Amino acid sequence: MHIIAHRGASAYAPENTFAAFDKARELGADFIELDVQLTKDGKLAVIHDDKVDRTTDGAGFVRQFTMSELEKLDAGSWFGPEFQGEQIPALEDVLQKYHKKMGLLIEIKSSKTQPGIEQAIGKLISRFGVSMNTIVQSFDAGAMMTLHKLYPSIPSAVLIKPRFGMVPRSRLRHIASFAGYVSVKHTMLSSFLIESIHSYDLKAFAWTVNGPKTGRRLESWKIDGLITDYPDYFKKEGKP
Ligand code: G3P
Ligand code: CA
Question: Model confidence over 44-53: pLDDT tens digits?
Answer without folding.
Answer: 999 999 999 9
